[in-house]
Amino acid sequence: MNAETQQRILDAVDAGFEAQLATTRDFVAIPSTRGAEGPCQDMIGDLLRERGYEVDDWHINVDDLKDLRGFGPIEHDFSKARSVVGTYRPQTNGGKSLILQGHCDVVPAGPLELWDTPPFSPVIKDGKMFGRGACDMKSGTIGALYALDAIKAAGFKPTARIHFQSVIEEESTGVGALSTLQRGYRADACFIPEPTAGKMVRSQVGVIWFRLRVKGHPTHVAFAGSGANAIMAAYHLVHALQKLEIEWNERAKADRHFKTLNHPINFNPGIIKGGDWASSVPAWCDVDCRIAILPGWSVADHQKEIAACIAAASRNHRFLANNPPEIEWSGFLSEGYELTGAAEPEAAFGKAFNKVYGGAVEDLVFTALTDTRFYGLNHGIPSLCFGASGGEMHGFNEYVDLDSLKKTTKAMALFIAEWCGVEKG
């Protein structure tokens, strides 16, 4: 790809950026929390049809996925769950095929009064767009769509098959991405524009979600000593799991990538529910937890370690010794992933990055996970993850930096043109 072609594509990104931001605002304005992603999928389907893509919009059947590597259990109503894929098929086959993927699900906003502006009424100020999902990762998804638009607006068309995929469940199980693979979508490479602050994810953690279900013995609080407080017993187990977290972080010091980080394994008791009455010793307590594992660590083996930790802590507790808690695996059962065997797509992206940013792209050792794992681990498809800068993901006043978003869109457009090839349209 010559310099003139590159510049025409870059200029087209600039020319379309205001429209890109308008579409991003509309996308962020949809409150697509878990189980409510349908309107976002409708919007993506419409955007793809408007552009002439071949659209596949289907309901996800969990029974088709439950035996696949990386499946995580679904606990909520999944009857309306959908994946949407738009396919571009070239007139001339000259390049390498590509999957472009984003997730449209977002985490809950939390107490609305703690946001400076409403989370689903996106606002642009000080060079940033604020809103739930603005950074993670709706701006990246729309950026990928407008990167394709820029190639067309510059007078070119790709010479390889491209699947543009909008998935759900990235924040909880990953079965949206898994469903596209079960459906048969494959390519020579995958690119996911998660927010990475302009770095390429080299290695990322896996995640295990589990729920502790603790039972107590209720009494009137006036006679609390004769009862067993399920909430306090749950705290006992949480403290034990914090010790397990320390052990796993010691183990992480042997990993060639994660040894560079302090405390890469994070345990989080994220939801706690329990008790029925302030003047009754609580009879029950549920704690939903998340803990990370590293690439190469077995999910099954570490589930056993979690169970052993809980069993040992229970034996040392007056009530739990005879009333052990239950453990439910409640979402992610995900392996970590290291990007390997990706020399060709990385070289193609390196050229695009150098043109936009200058220099070489830096690696990122990521203490969260992305959907890249399914492509690399399940099917040997090299899966790149690179995106814009932002902040407060999963927190209040989430935002994406707009200058970084424009640069990311430019880099994606040039990468698509380099990897897939282009011809005059």
TrEMBL record:
Domain Peptidase M20 dimerisation: 204-316
Keyword annotations of the record: Cobalt, Hydrolase, Metal-binding, Zinc
UniProt entry tagged with the keyword Zinc: yes
Keyword NADP in annotation: no
Cofactor requirement: Co(2+); Zn(2+)
Cited InterPro entries: ArgE/DapE (IPR010182), Bact_exopeptidase_dim_dom (IPR036264), Peptidase_M20 (IPR002933), Peptidase_M20_dimer (IPR011650), Peptidase_M20A (IPR050072), YodQ-like (IPR033687)
A single GO molecular function term of this UniProt record: metal ion binding
Pfam families: M20_dimer, Peptidase_M20
Family per similarity comment: Belongs to the peptidase M20A family.
Name of the protein in question: Acetylornithine deacetylase
UniProt organism field: Bradyrhizobium sacchari
The organism's taxonomic lineage, starting at the top: Bacteria, Pseudomonadati, Pseudomonadota, Alphaproteobacteria, Hyphomicrobiales
